[in-house]
């Protein structure tokens, strides 16, 4: 299906994708954003329910409100860490929400497809898992387009619902900032900050039953 060069390119994007926090204000061509969203829309979804929606945010006023919601939660979460780790956590940037030319709120609609969705009846959270697949497609497509993407994952969902006027049954899964950057690290930011190290794959693989290597 793919040439050797095409296959290598896919793996290159997977291994080089990063969660970015610093962006340039350079505008992104509209057709590029559409290509990234179309890649997201072609993600696999359980029962083909396609539970996602995308709110495109370019207003500085709205970005400021989103950054406020993230900062409020970041300060609240800092109490869970002590000493050096607390300082590292507080140093994590959320300024990307304001710097990036566009932020996208990716939502999940649990009612999409009706009350009986193939596969979701057994495992209800597959709607959120499907939305996560769409986000991963966005990340890979952004990287392939030479763009950086950052996923802000701490905020109170009701704050985001209020700011973006999202209906109460819709789940705001992610705030995604996208833009060009001059700071694209060779390793994940949290790994560079010694927050955590990549685990050995060999220790994560079992044979036939849990715990059997």
Automatic annotation (TrEMBL):
Keywords tagged on the record: Flavoprotein, FMN, Oxidoreductase
One Pfam family, short name: Nitroreductase
GO molecular function, a single term: 5,6-dimethylbenzimidazole synthase activity
Domain Nitroreductase, chain residue ranges per copy: 14-180
Top-level taxon of origin: Bacteria
Enzyme Commission number(s): 1.13.11.79
InterPro entries in alphabetical order: BluB, Nitroreductase, Nitroreductase-like, Nitroreductase/BluB
NCBIfam families, A to Z: BluB
Protein name: 5,6-dimethylbenzimidazole synthase
Gene name, Swiss-Prot/TrEMBL: bluB
């Amino acid at each position: 299906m793919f040439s050797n060069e095409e296959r290598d390119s896919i793996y290159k994007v997977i291994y080089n994708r990063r969660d970015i926090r610093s962006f340039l204000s350079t505008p992104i061509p509209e057709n590029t954003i559409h290509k990234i969203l179309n890649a997201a829309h072609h993600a696999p979804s359980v029962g083909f329910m396609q539970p996602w929606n995308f709110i495109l945010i370019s207003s500085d006023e709205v970005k400021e409100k989103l950054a406020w919601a993230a900062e409020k939660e970041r300060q609240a979460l800092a109490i869970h860490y002590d000493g050096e780790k607390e300082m590292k956590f507080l140093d994590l940037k959320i300024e990307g929400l304001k710097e990036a030319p566009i932020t996208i709120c990716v939502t999940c609609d649990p009612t999409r497809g009706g009350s009986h969705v193939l596969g979701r009846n057994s495992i209800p959270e597959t709607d959120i898992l499907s939305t996560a697949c769409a986000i991963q497609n966005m990340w890979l497509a952004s990287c392939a387009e030479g763009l950086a993407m950052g996923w802000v994952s701490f905020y109170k969902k009701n704050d985001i619902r209020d700011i973006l006027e999202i209906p109460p049954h819709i789940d705001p899964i992610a705030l995604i900032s996208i833009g060009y950057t001059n700071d694209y690290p060779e390793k994940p930011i949290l790994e560079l900050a010694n927050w955590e190290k990549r685990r050995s794959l060999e220790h994560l693989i079992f044979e036939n039953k849990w715990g059997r290597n």
